[in-house]
Design brief:
- It is a single chain.
- Strands 1, 4, 5, 6, 7 and 8 form a 6-stranded mixed β-sheet that branches. Strands 2-3 form a two-stranded antiparallel sheet.
- The protein has 188 residues and is an alpha+beta fold.
- It starts with 19 loop residues before the first strand and ends with a helix.
- The chain contains 5 helices and 8 strands, in the order E-E-E-E-E-H-E-E-H-E-H-H-H.
- Helix content is 22%, strand content 24%.
- The protein has one domain.
């Protein structure tokens, strides 16, 4: 894959009335599919519009009081709760019924607008992704992607934190820190 196939200058889509831009990450399959990180029963996202379904209650997602709908984060720092954000980050456009939260939102409909791929994603896998998601704009620069496709800031979001995503992802989990402390005490 050549550099010209990334960070292209094609015309960027304008948001339509009622659409919200947000961020999310995915588990990247070896076949170039973007799968949800936590909820695997839904299967991979498709190119273009995706419509959520509530499998348990049969109502229209995203319903208040239910956990159905497409989840997306309002800030880059919030998206970094998932280690997958080190490898792949996507800007998604959400619309329909939307339930805003303090860190992001749940939406009835969503489409992938832009995808950032780290250098850890092989050229072969990047090619497969571009074939599966031709309507998305691909970037090797996360900063450029976020500048060209800025997330929509909703009033419900918590104020942005000062901690960088990279530092947050390197920080060990509390259970890992506890194990390290126990091992250190055993050495004394």
């Amino acid at each position: 894959m050549t550099a010209s196939q990334f960070d292209d200058d094609r015309t960027l889509p304008d948001l339509r009335v009622g659409e919200i831009r947000a961020l999310r990450t995915f588990r990247l399959s070896e076949y170039g599919y973007l799968n949800p990180v936590g909820y695997t029963a839904a299967g991979p996202w498709q190119d273009g519009a995706n419509t959520a379904r509530c499998l348990g209650h049969g109502h229209t997602p995203a319903a208040p009081g239910c956990k159905c709908g497409f989840y997306a984060y309002g800030t880059y720092g919030a998206a970094c709760d998932y280690a997958e954000a080190r490898r792949l980050l996507a800007v998604v456009t959400c619309w329909g019924k939307v339930v805003p939260g303090t860190r992001g939102l749940r939406a009835q409909h969503a489409r992938i607008e832009a995808i950032w791929l780290s250098s850890r994603v092989s050229p072969r896998l990047a090619r497969r992704l571009r074939q599966r998601y031709p309507s998305a704009t691909f970037y090797r620069s996360r900063r450029l992607m976020l500048r060209r496709h800025p997330p929509t800031r909703l009033e419900s979001y918590d104020p942005p934190g000062l901690e960088s995503c990279e530092r947050k992802l390197r920080r060990p989990r509390w259970d890992q820190r506890l194990r390290w402390e126990i091992d250190r005490l055993r050495l004394w």
